Amino acid sequence: MTTDRHADLRRTVREFARQEVAPRIAAMEHSQTVDSELAALIAAQGWLGATIDRSWGGMGAGQEAKTVIIEELSCVSGAAGAIVQASQLGVAKIIHLGSTEQQRTWLPAIAAGDVLPTIAVTETVSGGHVLGMQSTARRTRNSWVLDGEKVFVGNSHVGGLHGVVLRTGNGPAGLTAFLVESDRPGVSVLPHSSALGLHGFSFGTVRFDRVKVPASAVVGDVGGGLAVAYSSSVLYGRPNLTAVALGLHRAVVERTVTEATTRTRYGAHLADLAVVQHKIGQMASRFAAARALAYEAVARLDRGESCDDELMAAKHQNVELLLDSVRQAMDIHAAAGLDARSEIARLMRDSWCINPPAGTGDIQVHRLAEQLLHPRRHLDWSQRLAGVLRLPPHETWNRVPAGKDQVDALQTCTS
């Protein structure tokens, strides 16, 4: 349930987005390159640490607060919201499955905005079929050697720490997750290729060519990579993308209302036409439903309740409802919406980019059906990690300075 603290946070992020993000949009759309300065500026606000405990210098504010941050940024720029959602996805594996040493080393740096984490799972040959991946990691005496290529890695060109899942054996128990610094020898990022939307954000290809990492780089257990991939996607990927969709949805509604109330035809505003009023009313109804689904799901996650199904449903419905509203918005804008430089065209392009990550709509409804038909086959990640996700009653969400141990670790990992 949203509180006064959420409202204060929303105002802070909204003002930041208006002052710092909005002026960059035109240049990002024109160049269609990665805006590394924007990524660094957002990271410096401490928002990547929304779900990181205060003992590591984070906000300790939880999933609902994280949703507020991503929604407000996405309402101004889908690319800005995507930067936070991708980094937060990278945070998940360290918070929930990382060792104490990994947490001590990386969480203060992420909370301070010095490192943007990523998660690298998808491959060209396998797509969303995680078990079909072919990139490998082989064990040597005291280390691992990583080889392969990961695609659609969010924050690929600005990330400083890649969470990589690779094949170390056969079958579901043959996947292992690793933390790999972006500047480690053998790690490279292919040149940025412009996508349909989210211009300014990078989701590209990272290559690992005989990359040597220590045994301490393993996240969780050897053979536990599937758990890292699935838990991160369920607990962070889906609600994060839900928040991006929600922010874009609000922007679509607001932009369309402005168009209808300011554009005139035959001596009257478009808003005076019954057909336009009907479409805007439908858009408003969809947005209200989408918002209720989004915040109820993450509120349950913050309370430590079982909510895997709600997170899947929220992602599916938010994207589908958004795309329905985009179509009606384009109807109202008509030919004016076909100008690639228009705001509604940008919102349309960005909206289509939210469907595939963490599973398309078809995948979400398939998983929901499986949960009903074969409930014992699937782990309930929100229930399994409920103890970690419960929020302590903090008086403030401002970041707290890391202790001496955390400062030492921060200096080590950023030097």
Descriptive labels:
single chain, four-stranded antiparallel sheet, 14 helices
Detail the topology: elements first, then pairings.
Layout: H1 4-21, H2 25-31, H3 36-43, H4 62-76, H5 78-97, H6 100-111, E1 117-120, E2 136-139, E3 143-154, E4 161-167, E5 175-181, E6 187-189, E7 203-214, E8 218-219, H7 225-262, E9 264-265, E10 268-269, H8 274-302, H9 308-333, H10 343-352, H11 361-373, H12 381-384, H13 386-389, H14 404-414
Parallel strand pairs: 1-4
Antiparallel strand pairs: 2-3, 3-7, 4-5, 5-8, 6-7, 9-10
Give the termini separation: 41 Å
Low-confidence stretches: 400-415
Structural class: alpha+beta
Whole-angstrom Rg? 21 Å
User: How many strand units?
Assistant: 10
Tally of helical runs: 14
**Average of the residue pLDDT scores:** 91
- The proportion of residues forming helix, as a percent range, comes to 40-55%
Strand order of the largest sheet: 1-4-5-8
Would you list the SSEs in sequence order as H and E?
Answer: HHHHHHEEEEEEEEHEEHHHHHHH
Largest sheet: 4 strands, mixed
Share of β-strand residues: 5-15%
- Overall 3D shape: globular
Describe it for me?
With 415 residues, the chain is an alpha+beta fold. It is built from 14 helices and ten strands. The chain has a four-stranded mixed sheet with strand order 1-4-5-8. The protein has a four-stranded antiparallel sheet with strand order 2-3-7-6, with helices on one face. It is globular and about 80 Å long. The C terminus is likely disordered.
